């Protein structure tokens, strides 16, 4: 009974606090008034929902795409709401996305829940902006640039072959889980440069899997909970990475290749190491995390779209058969030049990314009061450019719910196609992801057939 009364009191206090905060937001409507302006700025149209809860329950009780689309239809391309305890402004136009992510990016900082920052690592690239972010992004882009990708093609192909071989061995698995295995293996070779022994790889995979399961769990420190287990696994990941760095420093060829080697060799203007081991570990975990689910999801959707469009599948198979012929019937490995000859396959990838819109939106936070199209975006409010709404708008893509790769024979309008984000915080690994997709499709369509929801190699199949 005492617990129940305490809970009621807490809820009442939260409701009062939310009401006071909301009253302050309402007063914020008058900001930017005066100085020659005939009327003060208003908050964008929309609904803030219930005190404290906002519209979080509405969001999670239906398809999020429908939630955002219905809001846009009712209020227009800019509207306010209240989600996960935060007041938010949603933006659903290319101009707005460019405003937040490119032209006025200095007014909006990346924002993530503190629990997620602690789990990935507070020094990870995507939690920052400014000089630290620019220096670090330059290092990551260097490790994932064209020269590095050319050298990675054999490693990516080996990972694809290994994944497909597991299907031939009689393992019936879901497509998504198979794609997660593939993307993890590609992430490992990209980070460690192919110099990681199987024991270390197994340790990383085991602990990363625990972190991943707890990433979206309710944050608490109670032993046995998903969050607690994930934080423990995160500490073990850090330990494994520190062991690897110590081992590499003790070897004749210190650091080695791959992203890890690039980060370990980085130096400041004074010649001292640019990054501490703690910062390096945070960024390795961050890159591994970023390389996993999004790429695996995109690969899974590509397989589905090809399965659902048999004529398109045959056209892609014909293109890839010509590539296979150029490699001596598959006896020679794929090369960078081969991946650049896959025009139709590349358009299939782009259309899959548009249709699936794996990254539906991104989070930013206004660091000052901002005016946009006559509306006030108050300091501290979350700002969310809605990529999926842009990708699925008939204003920018004709018949947007039709899967039509031919639409990419002409480049889309600026800021209308944002599968990897936009601006200085766009995904630095987007070309690696597309390389992985091209190589997977090549071996998939030249070595497998799709029928009745199964991928069938020479023997067993993979359930779609």
From TrEMBL:
Q: Which Gene Ontology MF annotations are present?
A: (+)-abscisic acid 8'-hydroxylase activity; heme binding; iron ion binding
Q: In which pathway does it act?
A: Plant hormone degradation; abscisic acid degradation
Q: Which GO terms describe its cellular component?
A: membrane
What reaction does this enzyme carry out catalytically? 2-cis-(+)-abscisate + reduced [NADPH--hemoprotein reductase] + O2 = (+)-8'-hydroxyabscisate + oxidized [NADPH--hemoprotein reductase] + H2O + H(+)
- Membrane topology summary: Single-pass membrane protein
In which compartments does the protein localize? Membrane
Q: Which cofactor does it need?
A: heme
- Listed binding positions for heme are 427
Read off the Pfam families from this record.
Answer: p450
Q: Main EC class of this protein?
A: oxidoreductase
User: What is the residue range of the signal peptide feature?
Assistant: 1-17
* Domain of life of the native organism: Eukaryota
Q: What keywords sit in the KW lines? A: Heme, Iron, Membrane, Metal-binding, Monooxygenase, Oxidoreductase, Signal, Transmembrane, Transmembrane helix
Q: What is its EC number?
A: 1.14.14.137
Tell me its family.
Answer: Belongs to the cytochrome P450 family.
Q: What does this protein do?
A: Involved in the oxidative degradation of abscisic acid.
> What is the official name of this protein in its record?
(+)-abscisic acid 8'-hydroxylase
* Source organism of this protein record: Zea mays (Maize)
Question: Encoded by which gene?
Answer: LOC100191697
């Amino acid at each position: 009974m005492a617990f129940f009364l305490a809970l009621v009191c807490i809820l009442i206090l939260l409701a009062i606090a939310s009401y006071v905060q909301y009253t302050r937001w309402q007063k914020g409507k008058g900001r930017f008034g005066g100085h020659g302006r005939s009327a003060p700025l208003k908050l964008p149209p929309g609904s803030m929902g219930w005190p404290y809860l906002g519209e979080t329950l509405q969001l999670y009780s239906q398809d999020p795409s429908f939630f955002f689309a219905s809001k846009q239809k009712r209020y227009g391309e800019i509207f306010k709401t209240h989600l996960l305890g935060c007041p938010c402004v949603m933006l659903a136009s290319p101009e707005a996305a460019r405003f937040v992510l490119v032209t006025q990016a200095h007014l909006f900082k990346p924002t993530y829940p503190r629990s997620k920052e602690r789990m990935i690592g507070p020094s990870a690239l995507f939690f920052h902006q400014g000089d630290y972010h620019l220096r670090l992004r330059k290092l990551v882009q260097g490790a994932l640039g064209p020269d590095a990708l050319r050298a990675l093609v054999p490693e990516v192909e080996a990972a694809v072959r290994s994944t497909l071989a597991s299907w031939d061995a009689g393992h019936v698995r879901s497509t998504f889980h198979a794609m997660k295995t593939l993307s993890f293996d590609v992430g490992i070779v990209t980070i460690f440069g192919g110099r990681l022994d199987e024991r270390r790889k197994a340790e990383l995979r085991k602990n990363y899997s625990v972190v991943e399961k707890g990433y979206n769990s309710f944050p608490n420190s109670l032993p046995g909970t998903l969050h607690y287990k994930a934080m423990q696994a995160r500490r073990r990941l850090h330990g494994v990475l520190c062991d690897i760095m110590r081992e590499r420093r003790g070897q004749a060829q210190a650091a080695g290749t791959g992203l890890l080697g690039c980060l370990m060799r980085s130096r400041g203007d004074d010649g001292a190491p640019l990054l501490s081991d703690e910062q390096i570990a945070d960024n390795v975990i961050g890159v591994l995390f970023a390389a996993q689910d999004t790429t695996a999801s995109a690969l899974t959707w590509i397989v589905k779209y090809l399965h659902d469009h048999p004529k398109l599948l045959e056209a892609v198979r014909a293109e890839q058969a010509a590539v296979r012929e150029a490699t001596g019937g598959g006896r020679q490995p794929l090369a960078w030049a081969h991946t650049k000859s896959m025009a139709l396959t590349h358009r299939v990838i782009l259309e899959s990314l548009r249709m699936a819109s794996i990254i539906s939106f991104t989070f930013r936070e206004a660091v000052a009061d901002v005016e946009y199209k006559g509306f006030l975006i108050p300091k501290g409010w979350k700002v969310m450019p809605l990529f999926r709404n842009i990708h699925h708008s008939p204003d920018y893509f004709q018949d947007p719910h039709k899967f039509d790769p031919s639409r990419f024979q002409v480049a889309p309008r600026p800021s209308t196609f944002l599968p990897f984000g936009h601006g200085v915080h766009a995904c630095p690994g987007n070309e690696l992801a597309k390389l992985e997709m091209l190589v997977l499709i090549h071996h998939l369509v030249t070595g497998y057939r799709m029928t009745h929801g199964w991928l069938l190699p020479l023997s067993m199949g993979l359930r779609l």
